[in-house]
Every structure is written in C-alpha cells, then in structure tokens.
Design the sequence.
C-alpha cells in the first residue's frame, strides 16, 4: 500500500472541566470517514470506556462526545499530519505534532495517556520536550492488539483513569426542573426522541445484567415452577376466560410454553404505561430482543393509540419490528416477532442471537399472571415522574400487585425512572406501589428517590445521565446568583415589578391553558387517563424509617 499524506481535521474534545487527556496517533481511515475518533467498528475504545463507567456503549458522535465530557476526559491525537500507509502506525513518516497548549491553557489536565505504544513514542519525541508534561502509555484498543482482551483493557484504563477522575457529582433536581432541563437539552440539539432512545438503552442494560445474574444463580426450571404456581393460584373463571378470549388486536399473544427450548434465553417482561415512561420500555424491548432475550411487552393501548410524544414514535418503531418475520420464533405465540437493530453493549449481548418481541395489549388478569410468572426480570415502565396520589387506578394497580407477587417468588424487578406508585417529588408511596430491586432514573436523581425510606421501593438507584448537563446547571447557578443580587439591590421596587409582571402574565394567559397534545414538555404521564396532578405540592406523609428491606 502506498503512503499518503494525512492531515488531522477532527477537532479535539475538551472543555474547562477536563482532567485527563487521552492521545492516539492519527485517525484511521475509518475514523476519518466517520469524522470522529476510534470509528472502526472493531475498535474497543468506546466499549472499554462504557464498561469502566457502567454505561451502554455510545453510538452517535454526539453521545460519544457527551460521555467524554461528562467524565472530564479530553481526547485528541499526537499528530497534526504525517505520511502513513492505511492505518499502520509502523509506517508513519514525516510526523508533525499537534499543539496541545490549547487544551492545557483551557483545562486543569492532571495526566496525559497515550492509547498505544506508537502514540507514546511520538509524544515523548515530539511534544514532551517542549510541553514538559510526561505521558503514560496504555494498551492499544485496536483490533490489531488481539492479545489484549476487552477485560484486560478495561482493567488497565480503569486503574489509570479512575483515581484521577474521582466520583461523578450526583445531582438531585425537583421534577419541574428536570422538565426544564430536558427542554434545554432539546434546545441544544439533542431531541426528546434521542433522549428516550438513550434512556431505553440504559434501562435495557440494567435489565439484561439482572437477567444474566439471575441465570447464573438459578436453574432454568425456576421460571416454569413460578408459572405453574401462578396458574394454580388463578381463579377458574379467569382460566376459562383465557382459553376462550380472542383479542381484537393482532399483537396480543399467549405466554410461551415453558418447555420451549428457547426458554433457556433470558425472559424479560416489560410493563408499559401510555406516557413517556412507557416509551422507555418500548425502546428497551428492542434492545433486549437484539441482545438475545425473549421479550413480552404489556401495554394498555396499541402503539397507534399512544398520544404522548416521543413515546408514540418509539412504540411504532418497536411494533413495526415485532411485525416482521422472526429469526427465532417462540412456540405458542399467536403473533409474528423479530429482532431489533440494536442491543445493550455487553460481551454476552454481542454474541447473542436475536429473539422475539411479543406485544400484549390489555391482557386479562390470568394472562398477565402467566406472562409475569415466566419472566426472569420484570421491567416497570408504567407510571413515571409525573405521578402523585394516594392510589393507582386500574389496570395498573393489578399490574403492580402481580409484579410484586412475582418479586416474592424470585423474579427481579427493574423500574424506569421511579417505581410506579411512588412520587418522585415527595417520596410518598401510593397503594399499591411497585417494589423494585433496581431503579434506573434518567438524567438526575429526584427528591422522592432520596428520602430515607425510598429504598424499600427503589432498591438500588442508578442515574442514567443521558446528556452532558454540567454547563446547563452551571449557567442556572450563575443566573440565580445574579438574580439574587439584583433582588437584594432592587428591594421593594424589584419585588413590586416582579409582582406586576406575574400578574400581567396570569391575566394574559387566563382561560388559555396549553394544549397537552401540542406541549412536548408536559409530563406525559398525565396522558395515561389516571387523573393525577403531576406537580402536586402535597407534603409527604410520614412513613417508618426502615433499616432493612422489609419486602425480602
């Protein structure tokens, strides 16, 4: 292969919060074509970082950039130009270095790491003599470095990076501020649909990990035994109803036969409400099916009848996938199903065969009991952060009770954003309230998840960051400081002016409430016809302070 002169045209990733700098040599042909770093599909750089931070591997360029900035990692290459044959670092000649001073001038860089032997050699030769900052060489993530497995790379990079990066700051925001934050993120170019896709992938990863852990602890007969137990507890009239019932929707299906050979695959049941919390569940279904899980998705309404956006869009995508011919159909299902195009990025998932998605619209009590009894993991995506109230209305109350029954029989439960029935704002638990083993809450934590007794319902709370929010939060703090200073200087005049302005706004908006169909940032859970006030300021009812999980 002939050598060609290559000029580096990809901008570095960094900001004032960056603390470590990772340097490669020069973007490969695949990276140059993609327009971003480590673009070869077999390069393990992004999977390695995701494993270190226990996140789904990023896919889009913006998502990769977000991950770097959220964890205070700067990324660039040693060379500005060189002659090179293809992607062979060994062939590099006439190398010219990048000017790293622009990064060091902007950020408090505490250490520099080269992502491979050649990058380290070139840094020490061309940059260290003038910059005066030493460099540590880490193993290459290139597929050419086959002697290093992904686990080896994760261990080496984690040992080098984590002590310098420290703990990620945990943010807790009221629900109203989370809504504002979502809008601000969308204004910055990351759409609500993209945020939902990221949320669904984060949810799927935790559910998949739970299923893998369950499979290693229990024999495959456990799910069949739980199903048999549930059937034996089902009233006779419900069983007759199940036998005679014919759904009006082509996507309603019977539970799989537990003797089916495909039941060796992890079996996930996803309970979806009709709001955007349910949308996270529809996305997770695609991810889990692609990862090789058998997925049963339960919904009150078919995708076409969901009004919340972007849940409606994501539900239609999943429904379309579930209407295609299946690669590995399950016995006993009345519907067609298929695999999805994406999957949680874990080692097991990469080698898994795609499975089926079975969509069940408003199943009967008996049908749902059978579905949940067969599941290794139940995903709760019913009610989200907009919920508040003393009770949960039908049919979701029955869904929650059945899920809690299966929890007692050994099924694992993962909640999306907040366990259904728990107020994310106050921490007050309605009747019934789902009891999760893990809760994947989106973007930031919420006040209701941080109350002393919330763990009895939330289990372990994981924050799925979804976007780089530090600059937004910092700008809010600066604005708050300025506003407070102005209020102090303005005294009564400022208060009077604010009062007049508020009165004028109220008068202008009187009798003109925004249409929920056209307000993208209205809490979508209010569209579930449950009648809850999403911004209730009702004080939390005192509850006992548990020292151990009372549900186990």
Sequence:
């Amino acid at each position: 292969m002939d050598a060609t002169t290559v000029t580096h045209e990809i901008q570095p990733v960094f900001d004032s919060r960056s603390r470590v700098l990772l340097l490669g040599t020069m973007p490969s042909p695949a990276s140059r074509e993609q327009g971003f770093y480590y673009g070869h599909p077999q390069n393990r750089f992004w999977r390695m970082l995701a494993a270190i931070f226990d996140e789904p591997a990023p896919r889009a360029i913006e998502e990769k950039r977000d991950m770097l900035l959220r964890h205070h990692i700067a990324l660039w290459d040693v060379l500005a130009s060189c002659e090179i044959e293809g992607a062979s670092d060994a062939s590099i000649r006439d190398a010219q270095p990048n000017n790293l001073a622009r990064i060091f001038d902007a950020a408090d860089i505490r250490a520099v790491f080269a992502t491979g032997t050649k990058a380290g050699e070139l840094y020490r030769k061309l940059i260290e003599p003038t910059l005066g900052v030493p460099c540590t060489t880490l193993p290459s993530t290139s597929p050419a470095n086959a002697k290093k497995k992904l686990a080896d790379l994760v261990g080496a990079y984690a040992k080098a990076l984590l002590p310098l990066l420290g703990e990620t700051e945990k943010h807790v925001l009221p629900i109203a501020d989370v809504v504002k934050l979502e809008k601000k993120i969308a204004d910055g170019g990351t759409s609500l649909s993209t945020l939902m896709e990221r949320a669904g992938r984060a949810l799927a990863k935790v559910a998949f990990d739970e299923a893998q852990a369950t499979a290693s602890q229990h024999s495959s007969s456990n799910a069949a035994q739980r199903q048999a137990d549930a059937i034996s507890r089902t009233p006779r009239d419900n069983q007759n109803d199940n036998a005679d019932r014919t759904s009006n929707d082509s996507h309603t299906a019977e539970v799989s036969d537990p003797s089916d050979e495909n039941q060796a695959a992890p079996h996930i049941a996803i309970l979806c409400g009709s709001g955007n919390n349910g949308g996270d569940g529809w996305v997770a279904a695609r991810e889990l099916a692609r990862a090789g899980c058998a997925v049963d998705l339960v919904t009150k309404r078919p995708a076409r009848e969901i009004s919340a956006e972007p849940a409606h869009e994501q539900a239609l995508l999943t429904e379309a996938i579930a209407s295609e011919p299946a690669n590995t159909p399950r016995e006993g299902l009345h519907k067609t199903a298929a695999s999805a195009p994406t999957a949680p990025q874990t080692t097991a998932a990469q080698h898994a065969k795609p499975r089926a998605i079975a969509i069940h619209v408003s199943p009967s009590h008996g049908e749902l009991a059978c579905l949940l009894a067969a599941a290794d993991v139940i995903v709760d995506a019913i009610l989200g952060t907009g919920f508040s109230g003393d009770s949960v209305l039908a049919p979701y109350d029955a869904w929650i009770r059945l899920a809690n029954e299966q929890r007692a029989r050994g099924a694992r439960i993962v909640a999306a954003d907040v366990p259904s029935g728990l107020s994310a704002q106050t921490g007050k638990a309605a009747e019934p309230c789902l009891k999760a083993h893990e809760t994947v809450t989106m973007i930031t934590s919420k006040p209701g998840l941080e109350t002393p007794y919330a763990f009895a319902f939330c289990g372990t709370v994981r924050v799925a960051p979804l976007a780089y929010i530090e600059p937004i939060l910092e700008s809010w703090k600066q604005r708050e400081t300025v506003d407070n200073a102005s209020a102090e200087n303005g005294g009564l005049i400022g208060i009077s002016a604010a009062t007049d302005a508020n009165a004028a706004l109220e008068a202008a908006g009187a009798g003109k409430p925004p249409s929920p169909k056209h307000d993208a940032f209205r809490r979508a859970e209010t569209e579930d016809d449950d009648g809850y006030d999403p911004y209730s300021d009702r004080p939390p009812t005192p509850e006992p302070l548990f020292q151990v999980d009372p549900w186990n």
In short: The first helix runs from residue 29 to 34. DSSP finds 18 helices and 14 strands in the chain. The two ends are 64 Å apart (CA to CA).
